[in-house]
């Protein structure tokens, strides 16, 4: 059964932890001795949000719109990419109702930054920050996250049509 005017978007991303890079997650610069490897600023959380936004609009994924082979995206702020994704969702006639995100990181501790991440995402998406939820968890030392080799993020969101459905 299809419910007109409601779409779900889901996004997931992962980046390797490396030396000599800033660690930016959710638009927050986190003091840490390692950063995330990537073509842009490698903001793993915002990349997951971008994929969820694009998915809700039925517009593919972040790699389709911002390929890492294109030098114009080299070092770009992922918040800028999110602004573009948001505009694409709006052009498709949808707005975000709410979102739930998870950051998977053994290190560093993410909890002190969650509210600022929520506020950053909400600001770019022009929505109330209480509609954006960011959670953080470790993987109990299991897998690449648990071995402190990388950080992953996931986002699920609900998008609703900006036009009224008339029966």
Would you summarize the structure shown here?
The chain contains 5 helices and 7 strands.
Number of strands: 7
Mean of pLDDT: 94
CATH level-1 class: Alpha Beta
Structural class: alpha+beta
The SSE string, one letter per element, is EEEEHHHEHEHE
Q: Count up the domains.
A: 1
Q: Distance between termini?
A: 16 Å
Per the principal axes of the C-alpha atoms, what is the gross shape?
globular
> Order of strands in the sheet with the most strands?
4-1-7-5-6
Which ranges are low-confidence, i.e. pLDDT below 50, for 5 or more consecutive residues? none
CATH topology description: 60s Ribosomal Protein L30, Chain: A
CATH superfamily: 2-C-methyl-D-erythritol 2,4-cyclodiphosphate synthase
Rg from alpha-carbon coordinates: 16 Å
Number of helices: 5
Helix content: 25-40%
Percentage beta strand: 25-35%
GO molecular function: 2-C-methyl-D-erythritol 2,4-cyclodiphosphate synthase activity; metal ion binding
InterPro entries: MECDP_synthase (IPR003526), MECDP_synthase_CS (IPR020555), MECDP_synthase_sf (IPR036571)
Keywords: Isoprene biosynthesis, Lyase, Metal-binding
Binding site for a divalent metal cation: 13, 15, 47
What does this structure look like?
With 167 residues, the chain is α+β, with helices and mostly antiparallel strands. The chain has one domain: 2-C-methyl-D-erythritol 2,4-cyclodiphosphate synthase (60s Ribosomal Protein L30, Chain: A, 2-Layer Sandwich), CATH 3.30.1330.50. It is 28% helix and 30% strand. The protein is built from five helices and seven strands; from the N terminus they run ββββαααβαβαβ. It has helices at residues 44-56, 62-65, 78-91, 114-125, 143-146; strands at 6-18, 23-25, 28-30, 35-36, 94-104, 132-137, 150-161. A five-stranded mixed β-sheet has the order 4-1-7-5-6. A two-stranded antiparallel ribbon has the order 2-3. Helix 1 (44-56) packs parallel to helix 3 and helix 3 (78-91) packs across helix 4 (114-125). It is globular. It holds the Pfam family YgbB. One of its GO terms (molecular function) is metal ion binding. A divalent metal cation binds at residues 13, 15, 47. One of its GO terms (biological process) is terpenoid biosynthetic process. 4-CDP-2-C-methyl-D-erythritol 2-phosphate binds at residues 13-15, 39-40, 61-63, 66-70, 137-140, 144, 147.
């Amino acid at each position: 059964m299809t419910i007109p005017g409601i779409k779900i978007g889901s996004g997931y991303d992962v980046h390797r932890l490396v030396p000599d890079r800033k660690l930016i997650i959710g638009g927050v610069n986190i003091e840490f001795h390692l950063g995330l490897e990537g073509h842009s600023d490698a903001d793993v959380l915002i990349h997951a949000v971008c994929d969820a936004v694009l998915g809700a609009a039925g517009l593919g994924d972040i790699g389709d719109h911002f390929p890492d082979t294109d030098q114009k995206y080299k070092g770009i702020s992922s918040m800028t990419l999110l602004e573009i994704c948001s505009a694409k969702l709006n052009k498709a006639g949808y707005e975000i109702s709410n979102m739930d995100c998870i950051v998977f990181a053994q290190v560093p501790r993410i909890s002190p930054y969650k509210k600022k991440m929520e506020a950053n995402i909400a600001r770019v998406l022009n929505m109330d920050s209480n509609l954006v939820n960011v959670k953080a968890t470790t993987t109990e030392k299991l897998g690449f996250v648990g071995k402190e080799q990388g950080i992953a993020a996931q986002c699920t969101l609900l998008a609703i049509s900006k036009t009224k459905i008339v029966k």
